[in-house]
Amino acid sequence: MMKFTPLICMSVLLFSFQVWAHDGHDHLAPEAALIHLLWIIPAIIALAVAAGRIYLNSLSKAYNINQVKTNKPQG
């Protein structure tokens, strides 16, 4: 995993935004960064939730902790 991080960073830095753009898709527009950020936020949240679950599961296995699941009262 550690060897892929520099590779990904270098590839992102080497390709300019103009290379990725196509007709009608201006990456140099002032609002382009905001639009792309709003588009990618759900993926970032999903990755964070998945990473958190994996981390908690690994901790519970390492320390032999049973996760308690509570039943919510039905309304």
Write up this protein.
The chain is mainly α and 75 residues long. It is built from three helices and no strands. The longest helix has 31 residues, at 32-62. 0% of the residues are buried. The model has no long low-confidence stretch (mean pLDDT 78).
Which terms summarize this structure?
75 residues; mainly alpha
Average the pLDDT over all residues and give the rounded result.
78
Categorize the overall geometry. Answer: elongated
Helix content: 55-70%
End-to-end separation: 46 Å
Give the DSSP E fraction (strand runs of 2 or more residues): under 5%
In DSSP terms, counting alpha (H) and pi (I) runs of 4 or more, how many helices? 3
Give the uncertain stretches in residue-range form: none
Task: Explain the layout of strands and helices.
Blueprint: H1 4-14, H2 17-20, H3 32-62
What is the compact description of this entry?
With 75 residues, this protein is mainly α. The protein contains 3 helices and no strands. The longest helix has 31 residues.
